[in-house]
UniProtKB/TrEMBL annotation:
<dbReference type="Pfam" id="PF13738">
    <property type="entry name" value="Pyr_redox_3"/>
</dbReference>
<dbReference type="InterPro" id="IPR051209">
    <property type="entry name" value="FAD-bind_Monooxygenase_sf"/>
</dbReference>
<protein>
    <submittedName>
        <fullName>NAD(P)/FAD-dependent oxidoreductase</fullName>
    </submittedName>
</protein>
<dbReference type="InterPro" id="IPR036188">
    <property type="entry name" value="FAD/NAD-bd_sf"/>
</dbReference>
Length: 503
């Protein structure tokens, strides 16, 4: 009973695409990529709201081995990221191995057959030697259960389901939420609608975005002399690394730097918003970095416009034609935009039920114990599972540094499997415990524990109050570790490994 596939990858975003490229490199080419959505690209396929752009300079927010010389701006618009994902998937022959509109309901390790059994919606089951989950951190949209939301008579749009033909000209709209999405979207909407009310629960830190169009001559140079783009990437990645390591991870040692960024953000606010009271309302009372900061040159200025109002009173309920705040005031609207983000900790981790060895349920195990994963990628009792969106997986500010470190980890791990002729791998409990102890200790210096994050309502913190997303390492350290982790941290299929040793 050989499994149908070498591997099943769940998710056709940049993580799943990277995993596919790595598996091909290792010669494990009999894989399928299952994708819930109708097309590839993950977040860059799903999110199409006006103003969408990347927040990490594009020379860095891309695979290092697949540079794109033709980014139109320093921070490329979302559509260019989607196009880039299409290009990479086609170039590496991945699209033909993708199945779209396929929802995975669950996966179970079959101990007898030493393979994963993956249940798909519609009663289909596929089997694979390896399971790679690449379902993203920010992939389960969140709609708060506001009382009365079902009675709203106008249009409700979540930012992850933006209709391409949505015309809001002359509308009376409300945006709920002031995260990174709203910061990009609100300036676009303010130009279009007749009236806009922005409902803010927690103010967000906003720093200027130093963006500019990349002249055609520079694009040509990047294409003709790839080393120039590599150099640009190195400089930008170095800056991000310094910001991350010094400002976020070593907050206790470098408080003045963190405070200086806060001062810059407040100066930006002062320069852009005329009304003192509105400025106060827009000022965060938690430390910079507790929650994902944002970058914009236009967000604050919107609040000077006569057709835009900031509302900071809590929402009590939604009525057919209004949002009603707890002080009884009604804001009459015909369009309700939910920029309310994603549910990370309830319906993710993992994105579907995963049952490992001895019937251990991954989601329950994480919740009953602590959220944890060796090197942010594997867990004891889950043989042959590569879980890309695990606790402590995220390393660095560009997601691509995480993806490429994980590709390296896969390369070392699967390379060893192939060398031994083994059929299974499983991380040891001891290695997992050691990693968790290390990250826990290191995080103590970070802004999450050393800073004042009490009022941030940050999704970086899980229900146990632990900041379990970010790996407290330099990206150089993470990459070094991915290429050098002790192979003894894993057990390999005992019988096969013993045969190999005695041969
Ligand atoms: P988010 O950061 O989670 O923001 C959700 C917003 O909705 C918050 O302001 C939140 O308020 C508000 N909210 C949620 N429930 C609410 C309720 N019951 N009542 C009132 N307000 C409520 O989501 P996001 O803006 O979509 O961004 C998510 C992440 O996606 C970002 O952090 C970033 O990592 C990524 N992103 C990246 C880019 C980019 O790179 N260009 C762009 C957009 C998003 P509280 O803060 O009070 O909870």
């Amino acid at each position: 009973m050989a499994p149908r596939y070498d591997a099943v990858i769940v998710g056709a975003g940049f993580g799943g695409i990277g995993a596919g490229i790595e598996l091909d490199r290792l010669g494990l080419s009999n894989f399928v990529i299952l994708e819930r959505e109708a097309d590839l690209g993950g977040t860059w396929h799903v999110n199409r709201y006006p103003g969408l752009a990347v927040d990490i300079a594009s020379v860095t927010y891309s695979y290092s081995f697949e540079p794109n010389p033709y980014w139109s701006r320093l921070f490329a618009p979302g559509a260019e990221l989607k196009k880039y994902a299409d290009h990479v998937a086609d170039k590496y022959g991945l699209r033909r191995r993708m199945r779209f509109g396929v929802r995975v309901d669950g996966a179970r390790w079959d101990e007898a057959l030493q393979q994963w059994e993956i249940a798909l919606a519609g009663n289909e089951t596929v089997t694979a030697r390896y399971l790679v989950t690449a379902t993203g951190f920010l992939s389960q949209p969140y709609t708060p259960p506001f009382p009365g939301i079902d009675t709203f008579a106008g249009r409700i749009v979540h930012t992850t389901a933006w209709p391409d033909d949505l015309d809001l000209t002359g509308r009376r709209a409300a945006v709920i939420g002031t995260g990174a999405t709203a910061v990009q979207l609100v300036p676009e909407l303010a130009r279009e609608v007749a009236e806009l009310t922005v409902f803010q629960r927690t103010p967000i830190w906003v720093v200027p975005k130093v963006d500019l169009a990349i002249p055609a001559a520079v694009q040509k140079l990047f294409a003709a002399v790839p080393a120039t783009q590599k150099a640009a990437r190195a400089v930008n990645s170095g800056l991000l690394e310094a910001l991350m390591v010094v400002g976020v991870l070593h907050f206790r040692q470098a408080k003045p730097l963190n405070r200086a960024v806060g001062v810059l953000a407040k100066a930006h606010l002062r320069a852009q918003v005329r009304d003192k009271r509105v400025r106060e309302q827009l000022t965060p009372d938690y430390d910079f970095g507790c929650k994902r900061p944002t970058f914009s040159n236009h967000y604050f200025t919107v609040f000077n416009r006569p057709n835009v109002r900031l509302e900071t009173e809590s929402i009590d309920r939604i009525e057919p034609d209004a949002v009603v705040t707890t002080d009884g005031r009604r804001t009459e609207i015909d369009t309700l935009v939910l920029a309310t983000g994603f549910n990370l900790w309830d319906v993710n981790f993992p994105a579907f039920e995963v049952i490992g060895r001895d019937g251990v349920d991954l989601g329950k195990w994480w919740r009953d114990n602590r959220f944890q994963a060796y090197e942010g990628i594997t867990m004891p009792k889950f043989p042959n599972l590569v879980s890309l969106n695990s606790p402590y997986a995220y390393s660095g500010l560009s997601y691509f540094t995480t993806i490429e470190a994980q590709m390296k980890h896969m390369g070392r791990l699967f390379g060893e499997m192939l060398r031994r002729g083994a059929r299974t791998f499983e991380v040891t409990g001891a290695a997992n415990d050691r990693f968790l102890a290390e990250v826990t200790e290191r995080l103590d210096d970070s802004v999450f524990y050393g800073g004042d994050c009490a009022t941030a309502r940050s999704y970086y913190f899980n229900p146990h109050g632990e900041a379990a997303l970010l790996r407290p390492n330099s990206t150089i350290g993470t990459h070094r570790q991915a290429a050098r982790f002790p192979l003894d941290d894993y057990t390999f299929d005992a019988a096969t490994a013993a045969r190999t040793r005695s041969a």
